[in-house]
Design goal:
By secondary structure, chain A is α/β, with parallel strands linked by helices. Helices cover about 45% and strands about 10% of the residues of chain A. In chain A, strands 3-4-2-1-5-6 form a 6-stranded parallel beta sheet. In chain A, helix 1 packs across helix 8 and helix 6 packs across helix 7. Chain B is of the alpha/beta class and about 290 residues long. Chain B has a 6-stranded parallel beta sheet, sandwiched between helices. The chains are: A alpha/beta (about 270), B alpha/beta (about 290). At the A-B interface, helix 1, helix 6 and strand 6 of A face helix 2, helix 7, strand 6, helix 9 and helix 10 of B. Chain A: Pathway: Protein modification; protein glycosylation.
Chain lengths: ~270, ~290
């Protein structure tokens, strides 16, 4: 019995040692990864400064017309840095971007939209520009403000609108396998409930990780999603590099663009 | 005949599987996974298996062989995920948009999918693997649809690992399908119990989510896209609110255990951030 007890204690002791060694190894690996990222981070910062100073020729001039609609996702932990956001928008205007969608999941940017618009001369809301038919006016940058409520909640609202039409149409006796709605109907209904909009070509994420944080799913099927790092560390060179890379991408897919000039509510 | 197939044309046999579980590479892999398991392991990983054609072109292989290599890579990945303790694996095998490709290539992929159904039925018995097909299966041939449904039924009670194969799938179609099914369900309820109160007439988020093709699995923790692209191509957009998006430059047939280890380490690095985000999104959803 003593032998069994001693044997169990030895096994338990060995297991503890093994666990401690595994934990140590795990921590060592993660510290090594951090150390590897450090020089890469330095190289990125250096490159972005070279781009900002105009020392890298290929970034000096490029065609941004391919980037018709840009989305910016800001992590909720940084969204209160309004001055940074205004500076970012000023950089985008300087580069030549005409239509920008700002997203944060808590809707803080939506609440600050008047303040942001006030700080940017000549900038107007996207839907105001659409109503006044000045979308093609190259003088103004337009802004759209989107939050988490424009995603899943909006789809639920749209579903209820479509359900009412479906119920009233009397088509409820049709074959249950038939398609009832089309994607176009869904898009238009989302506009009706106030949450439609163009599909961005490029989505830049400012936060600790590459994640769209609930940006309306219906609007980003083929959107390029690029992680820019924390907002507090944003720099002009990285922004230019991300936009330049997008203009160089040759996608190989049947992309369906949402025509800015056809986002008309048909109801 | 593809170089990946044996003399009888079979993609994989017990010898290949046996090789995975023997030898010093297997021992090294198991030790690496023991170290990884000190930290949080993703419950669900999803993969956009991009780059099969580029792989075939680069290796100067017959057209279609890239997809064979991709299928092999998937089978290897399933074994790795099983050993690591990942419970849900979702793969983007064929998009609705892919039907626009060359008809010969589409047929090759459908034939490969049929072959994969038989392979998976054998694997499911060894690993208690549950297989689910997510997508608009009505767009597939009757034979493939029947084989897929049979595999789903036969593996429904397995639980060690759930493999969801997104075929004939786009997230836009998934959302639309879920809305349609919700409407049909609410119509039946209104028809049977129309007391004029109107309480059953409202579609809620829970109604839509239960009709999603992906309702079988929790939201993914990581979406991996191979081939170096930065878009999700209409894959799991609804389910990826708090999901780490990982883009790997390697093409899918060359994705191996080291890439998986790297992705999981990256996930562990950012785990506390994503845990915070998930709680915040749940709070937002509850209003």
């Amino acid at each position: 019995m003593d032998f069994n007890k001693e044997s169990q204690m030895s096994c338990s002791w060995y297991a503890q040692i093994e666990n401690r060694l595994l934990q140590l190894l795990w921590h060592l690996i993660h510290v090594t990864i951090d150390l590897c990222y450090f020089p890469l981070g330095i190289a990125d910062v250096l490159e972005s400064y070279l781009i900002s100073w105009g020392l890298l020729g290929r970034y000096k001039s490029f065609n941004v017309t391919k980037l018709r609609y840009l989305a910016i996702v800001v992590d909720s932990e940084e969204v209160y840095r309004t001055s940074k956001i205004i500076k970012l928008l000023q950089w985008l205007e300087a580069v030549g971007i005409k239509h920008v969608c700002l997203y944060d999941n808590e809707g803080v940017l939506k609440k600050s939209k008047d303040f942001i618009l006030e700080k940017l001369d000549g900038t107007i809301l996207f839907w105001d520009a659409h109503e006044n038919d000045v979308l093609s006016d190259r003088q103004h940058m337009t802004l759209e403000f989107v939050s988490f409520s424009d995603g899943k909640e909006a789809v639920v609202k749209a579903a209820n609108v479509l359900f009412m039409k479906y119920s009233k149409s009397g088509a409820t006796d049709q074959n249950q396998k038939d398609k009832i709605f089309t994607e176009s109907q869904m898009s238009n209904t989302l506009i009706t409930v106030g949450s439609g909009g163009p599909k961005p070509d490029l989505l830049l994420v400012y936060g600790p990780a590459r994640c769209h944080l609930g940006f309306p799913a219906w609007r980003i099927p083929y959107t390029e999603i690029v992680h820019m790092g924390p907002l507090k560390s944003m720099n002009y060179g990285s922004l230019v590099k991300a936009i330049y890379k997008f203009t160089m991408v040759q996608p190989n897919y049947g992309k369906l663009f949402f025509d800015l000039h056809c986002c008309v509510c048909k109801h | 005949m593809s170089f990946l197939r044996n003399k009888t044309g079979m993609l994989i046999n017990e010898d290949v599987l046996g090789h995975l579980f023997s030898g010093w590479t297997s021992i090294l892999r198991k030790w690496a996974f023991r170290v990884l398991r000190v930290g949080p392991i993703p419950r669900h990983i999803a993969i956009i298996m991009d780059g099969n054609r580029r792989y075939a072109k680069r290796k100067r292989l017959q057209e279609g062989t890239g997809h064979d290599a991709g299928a092999m890579a998937l089978l290897y990945l399933l074994v790795y995920c099983y050993e690591l303790g990942i419970k849900y694996v979702t793969v983007y095998a064929f998009s609705i948009d892919n039907f626009k490709r060359n008809p010969e290539e589409v047929q090759k992929i459908m034939d490969l999918m049929m072959e994969s159904v038989f392979l998976l039925s054998r694997l499911s018995k060894i690993y208690s693997l549950r297989v689910h097909f997510a997508g608009n299966l009505q767009l597939l041939s009757a034979d493939l649809r029947k084989a897929a449904k049979k595999l789903m039924e036969n593996t429904a009670s397995n639980s060690n690992l759930v493999l969801t194969i997104c075929v004939s799938y786009t997230c836009s179609d998934e959302i639309l399908h879920a809305v349609e099914e919700s409407c049909k369900e609410k119509t039946k309820i209104v028809g049977c119990d129309d007391d004029g109160q109107g309480t059953h007439r409202v579609i809620k988020l829970v109604d839509i989510e239960k009709h999603m093709y992906m309702a079988i699995a929790p939201d993914p923790d990581i979406i991996i896209r191979t081939g170096g692209e930065w878009r999700l191509s209409n894959f799991l957009l609804w389910q990826s609110c708090c999901c780490h998006l990982s883009s790997i430059f390697t093409v899918w047939p060359e994705f191996g255990v080291l890439h998986l280890v790297w992705v999981v380490l990256d996930f562990q690095h950012k785990y506390t951030y994503f845990a915070r985000k998930k709680n915040a999104i749940v709070d937002l959803g509850n209003g």
